[in-house]
Specification:
globular, 10 strands, Rossmann fold, about 210 residues, single chain, 5-stranded antiparallel beta sheet, alpha/beta
């Protein structure tokens, strides 16, 4: 569950105010906005990476504003998976090693879960390939696995398709939506990529606020 109320953030004299968000477990929301509309700031607030100047953020009935930094970090690690525009991996490691590292940092290594997710995104055959040898679309599919690997209840995706061609865009977003639905994770995507508008019925356009 995600619920926000009256959140805003200040950048000098610029004040960004955001609409209220209320999502139940498993809901999916597309947030659209042009450059400078604050969509990445909003996602970072929802993920506990930065604090708003006003307002409250409730995630799974926990008020992030009431937690210490260490407790926010702990909550994030256990409950939130992130997907970014440019995937960040350890370049010297294989696909499998990168995914095992993500598990090791939060919980226990579960090779079976890694294999199942790799199979679901059609990349099990690349498990032992160096991550640098993958295409951008393949890397983004691995990013989705990494975000899901520790079974978070919330998925936050920042411009996950803007660097992809049409075919890879459709592939990645379908996988992301289907897997978040399968694992009952609440999904929020922020983007300026208008190709995604037809994929999600629940939308907020920050340009309207």
């Amino acid at each position: 569950m995600i619920q926000t109320n009256n959140i805003s953030i200040n950048y000098g004299s610029l004040i960004l105010k955001f609409p209220e968000i209320k999502l139940n477990s498993g809901d999916q929301l597309l947030i659209l906005g042009n450059s400078g509309s604050g969509k990445t700031s909003l996602l970072n607030i929802l993920g506990g990476l930065i604090s708003p100047n006003t307002g409250t953020v409730l995630l799974n009935d926990i008020n992030l504003m009431s937690l210490s930094k260490n407790k926010v970090d702990n909550f994030r690690g256990k409950n939130i998976g992130f997907i970014f525009q440019s995937p960040h991996f350890i370049k010297s490691l294989t696909v499998n090693e990168n995914l095992k590292l993500s598990q090791y940092l939060i919980s226990e290594i579960n090779q079976s879960r890694i294999n199942i997710l790799l199979e679901k995104v059609g990349l099990l055959n690349l498990k032992d390939s160096n991550i640098q040898n993958l295409s951008e679309g393949e890397k983004q599919r691995i990013s989705i696995i990494r975000a899901l690997i520790n079974q978070p209840s919330i998925l936050l995706a920042d411009e996950p398709t803007s660097a992809l061609d049409d075919e890879s865009c459709n592939n990645v977003i379908d996988i992301l939506a289907n897997l978040s639905n399968e694992y009952s994770a609440t999904l929020i995507i922020v983007t300026h990529d208008k190709r995604l508008k037809e994929k999600f019925s629940n939308q907020i356009d920050l340009n309207d606020f």
